[in-house]
Model the fold of this input.
Amino acid sequence: MAAFSAGKTYHHGDLRNALICAAVDLATEGGPERVVLREAARRVGVSPTAAYRHFDGRGELLRAVRSHARHELAVSMERAAAGAPGADDPVRAAESRIAALCRGYVGFALEQPGLYRAAFCLPRPVEADGHAPERPCAEPELRAFTLLGEALEALSRPGVARPGGRPAAGAAVWSAVHGLSLLLVDGPLGRLSPQGRRVAVESTLAMVVSGVRPL
Done:
């Protein structure tokens, strides 16, 4: 997907993109609850009527913000993995990549809590008559989960991984880092000192890597 450049100056050559940029700023400041189409229009300097020509309502705008936030989450993970130390042993290299991806995940949550919340919000799809359709809109696979799955696949050794084990391991790893992120952003772990936070993150990552290490 295309990345949006959010900022305080909006160019109206592409009003739809300008509205998304404004909405991304709103989410950055206060999470998905702050994303309101009328407020995005006000920030861009256009009427709500003009904004509604590009978005059916708040739900559609919020889905665009969520896509942007998910893209940025994956970018953070990939950036962290790119800086991970290499290793001659392919298993150690794969473990290092998994840990780095998880650090990038938690790091994004801590640095961009508003966007992190927006990445996992659930805007209700709305039809023209104002009612939610019976079936939710189909969505592309979350890149963050794909990255973890690929790293886990690289960790597998022939004859060691059990059939169907990698998807389950991916869900377990994702659950661990997502739960830790929520506890740090919105839960009691948010009261930890910076040092305590680092210990919590590294302890969780050590447990994650140990849990997926080939036997």
Observations:
- The chain has nine helices and no strands.
